[in-house]
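Sample intake sheet
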Amino acid sequence: MAQEANPARRTAAARTGHDDREVREAILAATRRLLDERRFDELSVADILTAAGVARGSFYFYFAGKHQVLAELTRRAVSRGQTAAEPWLAATDDPRETIRHGISEGAKLWRAEAPVLRAVVENWRSDEELGELWLSLMGAFTGATAERIAADQGTDAGADASASTDAGANTDTGANTEHLAAALTWLGERLYYLAAIGVEPFDDEDALVDVLTHIWMSVLHPPGHR
């Protein structure tokens, strides 16, 4: 309602001949198409304007720059991944199957959203807002992983990360639960990224899923503790 009541938005819409949502979606869709063809650092705002068919003023009304467009595309892509990861938080009698399913869903997400996710991995340190977003999103996945590890191992996922391994420690490994969750999360990010840019052997999705499943099971459910 607030957007509809904003005179500036009505003026911008009148200049472009589109309503608010159409202009914003045109910018996002055009950027997504361009990322199928080119690296993010090769794109300019002018390229996006041409592809979207909108005026420069309209672009800057909705986005501060191309990094903010990438941030929104990233939010949308990762929201799908968060939904796919939900089964990982549920109790199960078959942890291997649950872990493998979550990893497989992650691989599918990266395959479907490779241009966007490649772009954010390669550029999140070049823009403060984009960096904060990516660290926040990765932090959310880390938190979910820590909760599941704690549930499996009977530890405290909220333990102070600076504490000794006696506090918040994984009972099977001795590692701090949050640290372990962060390591597994960022390992996944790196291997999914390598798959997305075609680095062997991770460009083979089955091989990628097999390797990550083995690592997660070896760490979280080592032989003799399953």
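Comment: Confidence is low (pLDDT under 50) at residues 1-18, 159-171. Residues 2-63 form a domain with the Arc Repressor Mutant, subunit A fold (CATH 1.10.10.60).
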